[in-house]
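Milestone 3.1: sequence recovery, worked example.
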């Protein structure tokens, strides 16, 4: 049976999938591309089998999903692709104001909600909108963008008529200021009921190999991808070099702290790790 692998169609996952199709050539594998919220839904519904999905969605569905050890997307400080653009110079001024949320994100939306509630101590009026900065800021006092769009807009800092250049807050940096911890945005998650097929297809060893190969070829990835965003390769390269892909113990501490704030009611089941050769998933903490 075909194993369906989800791929976030953003620059930040390119190192993790570097030459993976070559490594899995001849295997019964299908690649499905989409934004995080799309892959979140597909993995939960069983329409794909393994994907880098929003960390909070893995936690919300820990009863049916396990995490691949040593694979994640995290940052210590500024991430450059989870950005709050604002017409006010301080987030504390967003109390009671409309804030537009990207429809591409789950973890970043939850992070902003946590920061507003517990760090800034404000209660905005949140609106979920298509990820188009001009339209979002025409309707709201602030707008949350993620992914490639955020990298482009955060780099260009273009004026938006008639109000000019919005203020900018990087949520990875805001989280670090508050907690002193890394923040985990995505986890490579597998359906527990598809572990045998994923192991047989050799997906996870190929992912580990691709990650090591990709991290050794960041300049090539940046140079190849930059024209797609109309950015300088150096901008893309610095962005990739600042990301954390290993899901270290520090990252896990940051993840646990975030989930404590974002899901105060608790998880439906313990978060677990799984890798080929393991008979059963193991607790993450």
């Amino acid at each position: 049976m075909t194993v369906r692998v989800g791929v976030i169609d953003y620059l930040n996952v390119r190192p993790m999938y570097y030459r993976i199709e070559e490594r899995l050539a001849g295997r019964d594998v299908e690649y499905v591309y989409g934004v995080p919220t799309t892959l979140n839904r597909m993995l939960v519904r069983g329409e794909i089998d393994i994907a880098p999905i929003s960390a909070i969605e893995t936690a919300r569905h820990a009863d049916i999903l396990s995490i691949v050890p040593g694979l994640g997307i995290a940052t210590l400080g500024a991430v450059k692709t989870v950005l709050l653009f604002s017409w006010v110079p301080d987030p504390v001024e967003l109390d009671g104001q409309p804030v537009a949320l990207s429809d591409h994100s789950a973890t970043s939306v939850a992070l902003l909600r946590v920061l507003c509630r517990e760090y800034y101590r404000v209660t905005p009026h949140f609106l979920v909108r298509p990820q188009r900065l001009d339209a979002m800021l025409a309707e709201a006092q602030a707008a949350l963008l993620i992914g490639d769009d955020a990298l482009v807009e955060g780099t260009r800092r273009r004026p938006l008529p008639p109000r000019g250049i919005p203020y900018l807050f990087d949520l990875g940096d805001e989280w670090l200021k508050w907690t002193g911890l890394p923040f985990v945005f995505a986890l490579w998650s597998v359906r527990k009921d598809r572990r045998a097929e994923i192991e047989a297809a050799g997906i996870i060893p190929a992912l580990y190999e691709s990650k090591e190969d990709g991290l050794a070829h960041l300049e090539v990835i940046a140079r190849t991808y930059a024209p797609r965003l109309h950015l300088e390769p150096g901008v893309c390269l610095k962005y990739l070099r600042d990301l954390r892909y290993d899901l270290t113990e520090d990252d896990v501490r940051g993840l646990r702290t975030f989930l404590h704030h974002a899901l105060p009611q608790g998880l439906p089941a313990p978060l677990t790790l799984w890798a080929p050769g393991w008979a059963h998933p193991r607790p993450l903490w």
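DSSP finds twelve helices and twelve strands in the chain. Residues 3-74+183-283 form a domain with the D-Maltodextrin-Binding Protein; domain 2 fold (CATH 3.40.190.10).
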